[in-house]
Write a structure and sequence with these properties.
Oligomer: single chain
CATH class of the largest domain: Mainly Alpha
Strand content: under 5%
Structural class: mainly alpha
Low-confidence stretches: 1-8
Largest sheet: none
Mean pLDDT: 93
Helix content: 55-70%
Number of helices: 15
Distance between the termini: 16 Å
CATH architecture of the largest domain: Up-down Bundle
Length: about 350
């Protein structure tokens, strides 16, 4: 069944019958489609959920409804039972595929020092292709713009996926999470909110800083990286995974951001564009210690049952972000774009 969407409302188009039906429902153009049946059909058909354009765009849209990040999605449908059932089905399939694909290390001893050491060891073992090193020395201006577009899916909403964990944490872990997130949100200064600094960088690079402006051109794997964070954050049963994800995310941020800043300066960009990356060189060097010891380590001590998911979340962060970087690097080294071709309605 084909559904007529309002093209001027949406900066991106559906990528299959499922995302078309979900977008229609959330924008008020629903015509009684059985979303759950469509989801089952797509899951049966897809070779990989992680790289399925239709599934990943559907998940992105459903999560965006919860975030409120796309204003044209109707707020009164956030708790629509049919859509929630569809998201639950897709969440489960996505999580199972991730758990099968991600290699999780052996569990450390149950104390904060051992957990932190295991997380740092995991981050240090991440020896995949380095997008940041390539970017620092070789990236062209068009590749830099691609990089900004790819990163915009998460970074214009920076920190939001992890903030879902705050009300679910207690004591030491909660205090550590709030300390990290307070910095991400500017420490009380609206102009220093990291998402806003990134938006400023995009404007400085002559790009559109409207959230969702580049959803149409990013590949499924980029959406999957953001969707994984959203899934970990939104599902209370995955509290350990979102904490582990944040720990790994912070541990692998400082040096790459220095290299991205160096690459942007080499290309002639000024402080307006490099500010975001320079900010993260110092901030994340502090955050990684808090995230490893005070957040992940203390959570594992207080809730030993969450340790397996803490390590899984960290490994999933490194693995999936490695896939995203490898995709971009392969395309650039081959002289190709890492983006999808923008379609017209």
């Amino acid at each position: 069944m084909s559904i007529t969407l309002q093209p001027l409302q949406l900066p991106f188009l559906p990528r299959g019958a499922l995302s078309e039906a979900v977008l229609a429902r959330l924008t008020g153009a629903d015509s009684g489609v059985d979303h759950l049946a469509l989801a089952r059909e797509e899951l049966d058909r897809a070779e990989s959920i992680i790289t399925s354009d239709d599934v990943q765009l559907t998940l992105f849209t459903l999560y965006a409804s919860a975030y409120g990040s796309l204003p044209y999605l109707q707020a009164d449908l956030e708790w629509d039972l049919d859509l929630l059932a569809t998201r639950q089905l897709l969440d489960g399939a996505f999580e199972r595929e991730l758990r099968a694909a991600v290699e999780t290390p052996d569990l450390p001893e149950l104390n904060s020092g051992a957990v932190a050491a295991a997380l740092f060891a995991l981050a240090n073992e991440d020896a995949g292709p380095s997008l940041s090193r390539y970017f620092a020395k070789h990236a062209t201006l068009p590749q830099a713009q691609e990089f900004f577009k790819q990163r915009s899916i998460y970074t214009l909403r920076e920190a939001d996926p992890h903030s879902w964990a705050i009300p679910r944490l207690h004591g030491r872990a909660k205090a550590a999470m709030v300390e990290i997130q307070a910095d991400e949100y500017g420490g009380g200064r609206p102009d220093r909110v990291h998402a806003q600094i990134y938006a400023k960088a995009m404007r400085g690079a002559d790009l559109d800083d409207t959230y969702g402006a580049y959803v149409d051109v990013v590949p499924a794997i980029t959406l999957a990286s953001h969707n994984m964070m959203s899934m970990f954050g939104l599902n209370r049963r995955l509290l350990g995974a979102i904490v582990g994800h944040l720990a790994a995310f912070e541990m692998t941020s400082s040096i790459p951001n220095r290299l991205y800043g160096d690459g942007l300066r080499r290309l002639g960009y000024g402080e307006e564009v490099t500010d975001y990356f320079d900010e993260h060189v110092e901030a994340d060097a502090v955050h990684e210690q808090i995230a490893a010891h005070d957040l992940a380590g203390s959570l594992a001590e207080d809730h030993p049952e969450l340790l397996p998911d803490i390590m899984f979340g960290a490994a999933a962060c490194l693995t999936v972000d490695g896939w995203v970087g490898a995709h971009q690097l392969r395309a650039w080294k081959a002289g190709e774009s890492s983006l999808r071709e923008r379609r017209t309605a």
